[in-house]
Structure formats: structure tokens, C-alpha cells
Structure to design on (489 residues):
């Protein structure tokens, strides 16, 4: 009893120190996204429709935080064979070189970002149905539950791919007392859940979302049935064992949803092409100080050495395929003489990512996170694994024909796997997919350790099975004794 009272007093003191007037706030460990209610407040968290809508908007707004403007692409591309870390950040070098440790600042902040958003979603999902405001219909309440469930699933999908087993947190703590301490303690200090349980919750959230979100929205930055179907397809292609019938099912649902490839690949990246027929989930920016995409400036420009420098290996793959359209749309060269040097490239012909082309201050460049080409190639992968090589070839050739490439020569299942992997690499370069493709197909170690530099010599990466997942941040281990570290860290 004394231990319980001591812990309660520590928690209560933390709340008083942090805030005496907030309706809800985050309780240590704050990165877990646990919302704690004012113990004097009544049980209705959102007093009006506008408050509930604002809470949902806050969860959506997190697609514009540092994780999604920068780290999403560092994790997906610089951690793969598509890009070098670039710039001068030691934390990024560790990611690029597969030498992470538990004190890496990127690892810590990404955990905080993802769990903070999960906490926001929990608050919305668990409280919006209690809104007593005629301005919010029952139908809109259910839509909000669906949208927040999609966002939560998106965040957990990131987390489980990065760390493997992660804590599952689905509730917020509204009140604390000696009477409920045993109940809330596991919520405040959660243990890691097995990956299978995390994937099951992701799928449950997405099934909830699919039943509730609309087919279309004002723009592609909101959860729609197409976005939910697409994410379900990607989840079933990632969890072990892969369920290729489910992947095909959800890819088919996306394809039947009215999306279409844009005629010219380059048009995906030019101004005025936002929210195209190909886009399924796309983060919209209006530009300027209030709503600018500062992330694009991290990848291109001559004012300082940028992140995610295109790799020689990727350039060589474009050139070997004679894929000039996608190479030119994806990579642009400039002269950086007198500005900085790099061991991978001469200063006179230095590459930058070309997909995010508005890289000025206050950019209004959108980020496309899911698009139809990704889903078509994922369906091709499913068909190939299900034994339909001609069907897979037809989809691969649909993607290739847009960029004036001939049909794939692959006919066997093994050759088609390689062809699809290459097609995904060239089609989706710098869009944050490559590392996760390598992991889920079991090719990461083989491919990464064979990467060569511009002279054809091995770079010397030493990716091991333990390094396929990140370390649990040391700061989280220090705050939560129920967490355990991943093997090898």
C-alpha cells in the first residue's frame, strides 16, 4: 500500500508541475502518448463538435511533423541502398551505416512522435461518441472514429516495422487514484506486445476505418476507403506469414476505386499536379509560414549539404535498365564546387533528389505517401506468389510502358520476384519504401551487404539480422522498467 501511495504521489506531483489547468496532458513516459484527464473534470472530454473536430485535426497535423517531413524518408531510403545519409548529422550516419545505438537522437524522437500521435488518436476514438452537440451527427462521429483508427494504424505500422515488438496502447488515462492504480499502471508503463498482436490491432483498426470512412474527401490528405484498402494490402504483404490472397483482395479494391496512373510519370512531381488520379494518400501543404513543407529543403539546395544523396548503386540500376524517364524525374545534378565535398561524387556533378521540386522556404510541395503504381506492383507481387506469372507480368508491363520501357523478360516465379523488386525500386525511388520492401521480402541483408561504390568496390556495410530492427530508445527504457531491449543492442 505504501508503494502504491508513493507512486500515486509521484504521478500526481508530475501532473501538478506540468500543468494545473490543462484539460488533459501527457503522463510520463510522455512519449507513450498517454492522455491523463483532470481528475475534477466530468466524463465528457469534448464539449462540442468543434472540439472533437479540432482533436482529429491535431492527429492529422502530425503527418506534417518532423517524422513525416524528414525522418520518414531517411528511414525508408537512406537506410536502404537507394541513398547515402548526406549532410553532417551523426545520427543519420548511424542509420545509413547500420550502426545504431539506443541513444541515437533520431530513434528517440521517432518513438516520441509516433506514440504522441497514437495518444491523440486514442483520445479521439475513445471520446468522440460521447459528444453531446446537435452539430455533430452520429454518422460524423463514426466517420471520426474511422479516420482516427486509420491514423493510429498508420502510426503503429511505422512503429512495428522499425522496432518489431512495441507497446500497444489503446486507451487514455482520465483519472488516477489509489483505487485504480493497479489498472492504469500497465497503461502508463506498458510492456512490449508481440509483433503478431500489433499487426492484429493494425488490421482491426483498418477494418474499423474501412467500414466508417467515406469513399472520397476534399483532397487526398484524408482517410478514404482507397487509402484504407491500400494500407491493408501493404500490411498483409508485410506481416509474417504474408497473406497474398488478402493482398490481392485489397489491391483489387483499390484498383476498383476509380484511381488511374497519370499519363506522364514526370507530372507526378510538378507544380499543379497535386491530388492526381494516381494519388491515394497525399499530405497537402498550402505553403508559407503557417503551412509550409520545410522537409523539401532538407533534400535539395545549394545552401548546405543535403540529406539522402542518391546512391551510385541506384544510379547504375537506372542506367542499366535504360530508364531515363524515371531517372531524370528522380535525380537532378548540380555543381557544388567550393561548397562541400563528398566521397561518392565529384563536386561538378553532384546528385539531388528531384521528386520534391519546390524546395524553397515555405514550400507548398505535397508529399505522396501511397499511390496507385505502388499498389499495382504490390498486386503483381501477390499474383506472382500465387502462381500467376502472366498476370504479374501484365501489371509490371503496365508500369514499364508509361516510361517507354519494353515488357519484362521474366517468366518464372524467381525471375519475376527480381523483376518486381527492381520495378518497385525504380518506380518508387525516394518515396520512403525501399528499406521496408527489402525487409519484408527477406532481401535486406543480401542486397545491402553487396552494395558497391562508384568504383565497383564493396562499400563494406555489415547488416546483420539484429540490425533489421531498431533499438528501443534508452530514454524509454530508463522511464519504463517493463520495456526490454532488442537483441544485439
Amino acid at each position: 500500500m505504501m508503494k502504491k501511495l508513493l507512486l500515486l504521489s509521484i504521478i500526481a506531483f508530475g501532473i501538478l508541475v506540468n500543468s494545473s489547468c490543462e484539460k488533459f496532458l501527457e503522463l510520463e513516459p510522455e512519449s507513450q502518448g498517454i492522455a491523463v484527464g483532470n481528475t475534477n473534470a466530468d466524463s465528457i472530454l469534448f464539449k462540442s463538435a468543434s472540439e472533437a473536430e479540432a482533436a482529429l485535426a491535431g492527429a492529422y497535423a502530425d503527418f506534417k511533423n518532423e517524422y513525416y517531413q524528414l525522418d520518414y524518408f531517411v528511414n525508408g531510403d537512406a537506410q536502404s541502398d537507394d541513398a547515402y545519409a548526406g549532410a553532417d548529422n551523426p545520427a543519420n550516419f548511424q542509420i545509413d551505416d547500420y550502426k545504431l545505438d539506443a541513444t541515437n537522437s533520431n530513434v528517440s524522437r521517432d518513438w516520441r512522435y509516433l506514440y504522441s500521435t497514437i495518444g491523440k488518436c486514442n483520445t479521439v476514438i475513445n471520446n468522440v461518441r460521447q459528444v453531446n452537440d446537435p452539430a455533430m451527427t452520429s454518422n460524423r462521429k463514426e466517420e471520426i472514429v474511422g479516420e482516427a483508427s486509420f491514423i493510429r494504424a498508420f502510426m503503429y505500422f511505422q512503429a512495428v516495422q522499425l522496432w518489431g515488438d512495441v507497446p500497444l496502447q489503446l486507451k487514455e488515462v482520465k483519472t488516477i487514484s489509489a483505487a485504480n492504480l493497479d489498472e492504469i499502471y500497465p497503461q502508463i508503463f506498458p510492456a512490449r506486445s508481440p509483433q503478431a498482436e500489433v499487426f492484429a490491432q493494425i488490421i482491426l483498426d483498418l477494418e474499423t476505418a474501412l467500414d466508417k470512412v467515406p469513399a472520397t474527401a476534399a483532397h487526398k490528405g484524408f482517410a478514404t476507403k482507397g487509402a484504407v484498402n491500400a494500407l491493408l494490402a501493404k500490411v498483409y504483404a508485410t506481416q509474417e506469414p504474408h497473406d497474398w490472397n488478402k493482398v490481392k483482395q485489397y489491391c483489387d479494391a483499390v484498383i476498383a476505386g476509380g484511381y488511374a496512373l497519370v499519363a506522364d510519370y514526370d507530372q507526378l512531381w510538378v507544380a499543379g499536379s497535386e491530388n492526381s488520379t494516381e494519388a491515394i494518400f497525399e499530405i497537402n501543404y498550402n505553403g508559407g509560414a503557417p503551412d509550409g513543407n520545410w522537409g523539401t529543403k532538407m533534400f535539395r539546395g545549394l545552401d548546405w549539404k543535403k540529406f539522402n544523396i542518391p546512391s551510385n548503386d541506384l544510379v547504375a540500376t537506372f542506367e542499366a535498365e535504360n530508364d531515363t524517364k524515371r531517372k531524370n524525374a528522380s535525380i537532378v545534378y548540380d555543381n557544388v564546387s567550393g561548397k562541400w565535398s563528398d566521397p561518392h561524387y565529384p563536386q561538378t556533378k553532384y546528385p539531388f533528389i528531384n521528386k520534391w521540386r519546390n524546395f524553397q522556404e515555405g514550400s507548398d510541395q505535397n508529399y505522396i505517401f501511397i499511390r496507385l503504381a505502388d499498389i499495382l506492383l504490390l498486386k503483381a507481387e501477390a499474383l506472382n506468389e500465387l502462381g500467376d506469372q502472366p498476370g504479374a507480368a501484365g501489371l509490371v508491363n503496365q508500369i514499364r510502358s508509361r516510361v517507354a520501357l519494353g515488357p519484362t523478360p521474366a517468366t518464372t516465379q524467381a525471375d519475376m520476384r527480381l523483376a518486381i523488386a527492381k520495378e518497385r525500386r525504380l518506380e518508387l525511388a525516394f518515396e520512403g519504401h525501399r528499406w521496408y520492401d527489402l525487409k519484408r521480402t527477406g532481401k535486406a541483408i543480401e542486397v545491402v551487404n553487396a552494395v558497391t561504390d562508384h568504383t565497383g568496390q564493396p562499400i563494406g556495410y555489415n547488416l546483420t539480422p539484429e540490425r533489421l530492427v531498431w533499438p528501443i530508445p534508452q530514454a524509454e527504457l530508463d522511464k519504463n522498467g517493463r520495456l526490454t531491449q532488442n537483441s544485439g543492442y
Remarks:
- The two ends are 36 Å apart (CA to CA).
- The chain has 18 helices and eight strands.
